[in-house]
Amino acid sequence: MSLVETNWLEKNLNNVKIIDCSWHMPQTRRNGFEEYKKQHIPNSIFFDLDENSKKDTKLPHMLVQEEDWNNIVSKMGINNTDKIVIYDNSDVISSCRLWFNLIYFGHNAKLVHVLNGGFQKWLLEKKRVTDQVSATDNSNYKSLEKKELVKDKIMIDKNLDVQDFKLIDARSKDRFYGKIPEPREGLRSGSIKNSFCIPFNTCLNEDRTFKKKSELEKIFKECLEDLNEKNIVFSCGSGVTACVLALAYSLINDKYLPCIYDGSWAEYGII
């Protein structure tokens, strides 16, 4: 199961590695790390989504090289056999992206979990928080990339004809159908030919917990005839909310490993 509940985490604070992956859209003028320094779940360490993404590209949130990932995760003191719980104060979207990153770089998917409802739910339940930053000792993390879990633009274009996989877009339907401008400059409106749309927030309840399996099945049946299908690829604006859909689908199909178009519309929609 990709999710853990707040009550479970409260009882297991010392038994898992906890990562705060809070990230906010630039227009919010919020800073995840500054918020982390003020209050966070005890024993949690911070992961900066922007800082730990590929630097030599104009595309946002692209995966780093394997060696760079080893250095990032080793500095966080994480070992290959650690059970990890990720949360955020960002409507669970950035924690799902880190969930994907860890699985892509070879961490056992059964050991990587997202906190259902995130930090907002933790606070609403008045569970313990701290401003103390946990000290970490460097580890010697060794990645094993699963390159089959990422598609690039060449693969997406090829799929327009052969249709080896189904592509599902996590953006809003207004963006998908080109009814409103894209929030990022330099991008046309619209979507990739033959793709489907499931806005990521349709998979979440108002408290940002994931909907029940039966509800998720109804949502995905709008696009998929077979909910055991493995050849599913998710995209979005910049590769973040695509991972919310990937996690939601894994709650239905526990044999599914997340696969995303990393460049997403930030790449495909360039004018």
In short:
Helices cover 30% and strands 11% of the residues.
- Biggest sheet strand order reads 1-5-4-2-3
Radius of gyration: 18 Å
Strand tally, please?
10
CATH topology of the largest domain: Oxidized Rhodanese, domain 1
SSE series: EHEHEHEHEHEHEHEHEHEH
Kindly give the count of domains.
2
How can the largest sheet be summarized? 5 strands, parallel
Average pLDDT level: 95
Described by the principal axes of the CA atoms, the overall outline is globular
Report on this model:
- This protein has 271 residues and is an alpha/beta fold.
- The protein has two domains: 3-124, Oxidized Rhodanese, domain 1 (3-Layer(aba) Sandwich), CATH 3.40.250.10; 147-268, 3-Layer(aba) Sandwich (Oxidized Rhodanese, domain 1), CATH 3.40.250.
- It has helices spanning 6-11, 32-38, 66-75, 93-104, 118-124, 153-162, 173-176, 213-220, 242-252, 264-268, and strands spanning 3-4, 17-20, 44-46, 84-87, 112-115, 150-151, 166-169, 196-197, 232-235, 260-261.
- It has a five-stranded parallel beta sheet with strand order 1-5-4-2-3. The chain has a three-stranded parallel beta sheet with strand order 8-7-9.
- Helix 7 links the parallel strand 7 (166-169) and strand 8 (196-197).
- Helix 4 crosses helix 9 (242-252).
- The longest helix is centred in the middle third of the chain and has 12 residues, at 93-104.
- The protein is globular and about 50 Å long.
- The termini are far apart.
- The model has no long low-confidence stretch (mean pLDDT 95).
